[in-house]
């Protein structure tokens, strides 16, 4: 025991390095999966919480014909609504129960047209009965609650104070509500109320009951209001709207905080099952449907989590493999330092199992300590159950490598001598070559297979241990390239050695001769793999961050965009305010209309129509990464005549390539207009307002479009005697304002508020994207992995230098005895260590950058950047940092060795060793 | 002072360690070696032979006393000065040969010439000549581990001669060789010392080597004892 302790103390620093590598790797690989799980939970919750419209489960059913009785009372409502809600609540499948709230019932009429003194242009009324365990609590400001119909047969209804004021009616007033078939329903307002608690979830089922909602263009607004029915008045409303004028909707709100990633798969299945078989809910009535966006949202979130997890697994696999290589290098160093002792002990009769056992016991203690520290650190960072697979891999390599190397060293009890017989020498060399080539070929085949599979299937497809080959594919590729590089190093060094031989000086010859003779494969491969991982991580971070910026342009299209839900001429005022403000470089106003049909030679295509003022929009694009668009100037010139046209004629347009040589037609509203392609549409934002990829875009002049549409509609009216052009045809109001400039966002925020428009700045989009828990977590992991791999690379350099240090020290001491100066010997040492180290590091960084080019698609990095396509590869400056780091490490090692050599008595070289 | 001596050692003391564990390797050694003289340094293991050679060769410094090589006070030299001394005036032959294993025999022999940045052509000529001199012309491109012990020591001797040193310091040059090979190496040293006119200080136990020397001096517990004159 004491001898073992002495031996360990003599090799303390390699053992400490081993423990440190194990601790860091175990800590990271243990904590990251738990951290990602936490991020995945957050991502799922955020996706559902931010869903618009909400992800709630909606159960809808009609009453059916002949089921109503105007004279029925509250008990009928209890049976048809309250009891059904309770039945639904009890039938909700168990996995959904913790996630869904109690049903909130809303029994709502179909759209009823109404006109009142204060709403002469008319509006839409929804007569609504609300229930959430009970009817909503209200304060009666005037009148009473609705009841059964009186002698006049009118349906009794209560209105909220705000709705009553908007309609200009009060308690006791009557009005006629008109059904779709133009028959009328008499309505009596029995009371005006105020909600006791306006935030009560019961009101969320029909918020229009408390607050009127205005829809449509500002020139033709439609006011939607809700009137409150009571349990007593609902039967009369049902009878008045027979057969299908009243629908029951039961809204089961989703609690995002009750969601987690692990349980989301079951929820998706349950929601899909309910949507496919709504009868599972046991709700009686015809037309039963269940709808929810929860399954779609969860599937989308799960896809993003799966992508992030796959990306993380690739990084973790790389990290674990890199750490394992470092542990192997450390074990090789230990065996080398102990080679004399091992051979001596072996020569004295120690068995190989005994030697292996001793080494294993020592490594088990060292690795065990490191792993324990790592697990504690991992647990502190992210509490939870241990992620065993990665920990086991690292620990196994750490424990088994030292005995394996020790045994191999002891087996060579006699130092290997070169056979003096040339034939035996060649034979031995051939055997070694065949063995080496076989191993290298196997690794190459494995790497090619892994990379091919990864490219074909994508990292997102990974699941389970079987796909570890996919996860390790980048490391295998790096190792394969390392072998090729390793084969390239000797010719390089031989060339340098030839030059050094022709030199007058001793230093270059010594440096190159030693570099040529002392290189070791394992540290070289480890260095290439680790620097590859640094390059890969750095390039992934650079690519993702640059891709996010590109994604912000694709999504916003400018520094800021102001949008309205419906076309609104008042956006012109927003554009004017922006144009007049300081810090705004360019402003454009237009209309982005998706889902429009184009009829071409090849059939019907769906396109996005961008109706803009070509001049300002071109000036704006020129100030964005999309760049100048000369085609817009051509469009402007061609559109001048069309804008002044009153007769039917084609509309100049910029179209996608396939439509260029054709004569397509565009469906706009209820008219079809001929297009005159005058050029190809320029590079434009690739995403629509809702974040979905934009279809092919047709760009037209907004004024010309309005003129051509008017002319076509007028001609049709002349021919058919139909109605005059409608509002949509008469003008092409804008729905979007784009602006660029440092002050655009601030000005747009204020201006958008004045017209009730929605404003989105590119900076905000970017901030939201970067704050996304998954994207943020992945980029953090990549940065951490890059730092750790760089540190491991530096460690490999130190271990490798330590392994060759005794031989270097002897050679340099001999050279110094022969007259080499101290400074020159440091240069010789640097000249020996730097070439292979720099080749490995530079090669690794290049391989990493090249791998990103190959992997950016399979790793689904677009899900991180928010782009429609794969981002362009960007290599940040710090990707090449490992080259500088290992060079500095070599110089530090050389400095330390030189310092140690100065303390060594040169005379000892004369002694027998 | 003995003006004209190749090596003058006066009152050299060298102690390793301190306190009770101190080892007094040399205790006031005085030694003169005349130019062209081959002196055998004889003594038991631990008597201070290697320490004395280290002081003379500028590989170590005495705690007291002085060491002059060609009238240059070795003890007063800086590290770079000592390196220059070794490069220009002193050559070494080690018991362990001291060859650089990654270099060929020819490259090992050429190292002292490279230290002086001798012209390439001159260096190659001299290396070839020296390897022929030690009988290893056909082994120029072999590395030390491809040579026998005797061949390695011959390469070491060729290397020692490469820079045309004034002083050859050899520490047990036949210590790891069999008697027959040792004899040939000793003869070689004797021959080249005479041929090149250099001074040699050789630490040895070998009576044949002692017999080949011009004179032998004995070191006993760090003190020099002149041996009886050779017959």
For this structure, the quaternary state is: heterodimer
Strand portion of chain B: 25-35%
Pair with the most extensive interface? A-B, 34 and 41 residues
Largest sheet features of chain B: 6 strands, mixed
Alpha-carbon distance between the termini of chain B? 27 Å
Q: In CATH's first tier, which class of the domain at 37-47 and 79-227 in chain B applies?
A: Alpha Beta
Count the strands of chain B?
10
Output the number of helix runs of chain B: 7
Name of the CATH architecture of the domain at 37-47 and 79-227 in chain B? 3-Layer(aba) Sandwich
Shape category of chain A: elongated
**Structural class, from helix and strand content of chain B?**
alpha/beta
CATH superfamily annotation of the domain at 37-47 and 79-227 in chain B: P-loop containing nucleotide triphosphate hydrolases
* Fraction in helix of chain A: 55-70%
What does this structure look like?
The complex is a heterodimer of chains A (913) and B (231). By secondary structure, chain A is α+β, with helices and mostly antiparallel strands. In chain A, 55% of the residues lie in helices and 16% in strands. Chain A is built from 26 helices and 21 strands. Chain A is elongated and about 125 Å long. The two termini of chain A are 28 Å apart. Chain B has a domain at 37-47 and 79-227: Rossmann fold (3-Layer(aba) Sandwich), CATH 3.40.50.300. Chain B has helices at residues 49-56, 79-88, 105-115, 120-133, 149-162, 179-196, 207-212; strands at residues 7-16, 23-33, 38-42, 64-69, 72-73, 90-93, 167-171, 199-203, 215-220, 223-226. In chain B, strand 4 (64-69) and strand 5 (72-73) form a beta hairpin. In chain B, helix 3 (105-115) crosses helix 4, helix 3 packs parallel to helix 5 (149-162) and helix 5 (149-162) packs parallel to helix 6. Chain B is globular. Chains A and B meet through helix 14 and helix 23 of A and helix 1, helix 2 and helix 3 of B.
């Amino acid at each position: 025991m004491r001898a073992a302790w002495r031996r360990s103390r003599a090799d303390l620093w390699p053992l400490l390095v081993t423990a440190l590598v194990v601790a860091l790797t175990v800590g990271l690989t243990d904590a990251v999966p738990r951290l990602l799980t936490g991020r995945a939970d957050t991502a799922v919750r955020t996706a559902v919480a931010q869903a618009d419209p909400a992800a709630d489960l909606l159960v809808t059913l009609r009453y059916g014909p002949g089921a109503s009785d105007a004279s029925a009372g509250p008990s009928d409502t209890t049976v048809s609504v309250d009891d059904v809600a309770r039945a639904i609540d009890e039938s909700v499948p168990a996995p959904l129960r913790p996630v869904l709230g109690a049903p909130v019932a809303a029994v709502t009429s179909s759209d009823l047209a109404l006109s009142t003194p204060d709403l002469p242009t008319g509006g839409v009324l929804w007569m609504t009965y609300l229930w959430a365990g009970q009817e909503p609590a209200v304060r009666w400001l005037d009148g009473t609650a609705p009841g059964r119909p009186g002698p006049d047969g009118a349906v009794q209804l209560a209105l909220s104070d705000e709705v009553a004021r908007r309609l200009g009616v009060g308690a006791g007033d009557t009005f006629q509500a008109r059904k779709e078939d133009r028959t009328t329903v008499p309505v009596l307002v029995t009371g005006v109320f105020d909600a006791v608690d306006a935030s009560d979830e019961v009101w969320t089922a029909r918020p229009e009951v408390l607050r009127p909602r205005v829809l449509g263009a500002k020139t033709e607004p439609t006011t939607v209001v809700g009137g409150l029915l009571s349990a007593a008045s609902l039967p009369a409303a049902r009878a008045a709207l027979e057969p299908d004028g009243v629908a029951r909707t039961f809204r089961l709100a989703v609690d995002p905080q009750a969601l987690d990633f692990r349980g989301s798969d079951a929820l998706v299945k349950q929601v899909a099952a309910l949507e496919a078989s709504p009868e599972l809910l046991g709700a009686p009535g015809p037309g039963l449907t269940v709808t929810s966006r929860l399954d779609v949202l969860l599937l989308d979130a799960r896809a993003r989590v799966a992508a992030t997890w796959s990306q993380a697994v690739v990084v973790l696999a790389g990290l674990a493999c890199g750490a394992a290589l470092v542990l192997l290098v450390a074990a090789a160093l230990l065996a080398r330092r102990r080679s004399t002792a091992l051979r001596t002990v072996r020569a004295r009769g120690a068995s190989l199992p005994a030697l292996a056992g001793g080494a294993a016991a020592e490594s088990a203690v060292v690795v065990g300590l490191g792993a324990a520290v790592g697990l504690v650190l991992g647990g502190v960072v992210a509490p939870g159950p241990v992620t065993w697979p990665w920990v086991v891999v690292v620990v196994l390599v750490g424990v088994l490598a030292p005995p394996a190397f020790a045994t191999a060293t002891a087996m060579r009890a006699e130092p290997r001598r070169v056979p003096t017989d040339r034939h035996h020498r060649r034979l031995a060399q051939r055997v070694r070559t065949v063995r080496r080539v076989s191993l290298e070929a196997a690794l190459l085949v494995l790497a090619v297979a892994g990379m091919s599979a990864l490219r074909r299937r994508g990292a997102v497809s990974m699941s389970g241990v079987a796909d570890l080959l996919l996860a390790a594919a980048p490391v295998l590729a790096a190792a394969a390239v390392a072998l090729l590089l390793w084969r390239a190093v000797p010719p390089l060094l031989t060339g340098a050695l030839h030059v050094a031989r022709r030199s007058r000086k001793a230093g270059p010859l010594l440096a190159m001769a030693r570099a040529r003779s002392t290189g070791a494969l394992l540290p070289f491969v480890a260095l290439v793999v680790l620097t590859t991982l640094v390059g890969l991580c750095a390039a992934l971070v650079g690519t993702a961050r640059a891709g996010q910026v590109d994604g912000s342009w694709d999504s916003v299209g400018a520094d800021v965009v102001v949008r309205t839900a419906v076309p609104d001429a008042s956006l012109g005022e927003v554009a004017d305010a922006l144009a007049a403000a300081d810090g705004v470089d360019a402003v454009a106003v237009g209309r982005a209309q998706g889902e429009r049909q184009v009829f071409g030679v090849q059939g019907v295509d769906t396109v996005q129509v961008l109706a803009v003022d070509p001049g300002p929009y071109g000036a704006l694009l020129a100030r964005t990464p999309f760049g100048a668009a000369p085609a817009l100037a051509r469009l402007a010139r061609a559109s001048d005549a069309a804008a002044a046209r009153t007769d039917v004629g084609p509309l100049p347009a910029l179209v996608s390539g396939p439509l260029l040589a054709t004569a397509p037609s565009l469906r706009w509203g209820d008219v079809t207009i001929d297009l005159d392609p005058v050029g190809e549409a320029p590079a434009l934002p690739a995403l629509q307002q809702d974040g979905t990829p934009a279809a092919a875009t047709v760009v037209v002049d907004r004024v010309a479009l309005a003129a051509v549409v008017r002319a076509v509609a007028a001609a049709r009216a002349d021919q058919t005697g139909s109605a005059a052009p409608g509002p949509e045809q008469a003008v092409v109001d804008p729905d979007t304002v784009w602006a660029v400039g440092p002050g655009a966002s601030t000005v747009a925020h204020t201006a958008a508020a004045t017209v009730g428009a929605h404003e989105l700045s590119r900076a905000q989009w970017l901030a939201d994207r970067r704050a996304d828990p998954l994207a943020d977590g992945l980029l953090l992991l990549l940065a951490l992995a890059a730092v750790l791999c760089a540190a491991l690379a530096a460690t490999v350099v130190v271990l490798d230098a330590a392994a060759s240090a005794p031989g270097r020290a002897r050679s340099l001491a001999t050279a110094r005895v022969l007259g080499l100066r101290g400074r020159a010997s440091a240069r010789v040492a640097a000249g020996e260590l730097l070439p292979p180290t720099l080749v490995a590091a530079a090669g690794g960084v290049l391989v990493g950058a090249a791998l990103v080019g190959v992997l950016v698609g399979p790793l689904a990095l677009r899900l991180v950047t928010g782009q429609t396509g794969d981002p362009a590869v960007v290599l940040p400056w710090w990707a090449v940092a490992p080259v500088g780091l290992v060079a500095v490490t070599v110089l530090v090692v050389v400095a330390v060795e030189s310092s140690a050599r100065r303390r060594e008595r040169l005379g000892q070289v004369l002694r027998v060793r | 002072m003995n003006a004209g001596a190749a090596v003058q050692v006066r009152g050299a003391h060298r102690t390793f360690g301190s306190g009770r564990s101190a080892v007094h390797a040399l205790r006031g050694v005085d030694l003169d070696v005349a130019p062209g003289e081959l002196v055998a340094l004889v003594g038991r293991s631990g008597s201070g032979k290697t320490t004395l050679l280290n002081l003379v060769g500028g590989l170590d410094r005495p705690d007291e006393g002085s060491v002059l090589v060609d009238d240059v006070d070795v003890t007063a030299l800086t590290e770079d000065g000592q390196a220059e001394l070794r490069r220009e005036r002193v050559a070494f032959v080690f018991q362990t040969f001291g060859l650089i294993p990654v270099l060929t025999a020819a490259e090992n022999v050429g190292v002292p010439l490279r230290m002086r940045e001798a012209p390439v052509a001159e260096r190659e000529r001299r290396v070839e000549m020296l390897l022929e001199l030690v009988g290893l012309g056909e082994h120029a491109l072999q590395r030390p581990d491809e040579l026998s012990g005797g061949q390695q020591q011959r390469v070491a001797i060729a290397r020692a001669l490469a820079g045309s040193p004034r002083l050859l310091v050899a520490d047990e040059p036949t210590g790891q060789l069999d008697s027959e090979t040792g004899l040939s190496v000793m003869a070689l040293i004797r021959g080249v010392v005479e041929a090149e006119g250099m001074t040699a200080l050789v630490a040895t136990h070998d009576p044949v080597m002692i017999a080949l020397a011009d004179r032998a001096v004995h070191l006993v517990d760090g003190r020099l004892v002149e041996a009886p004159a050779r017959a």
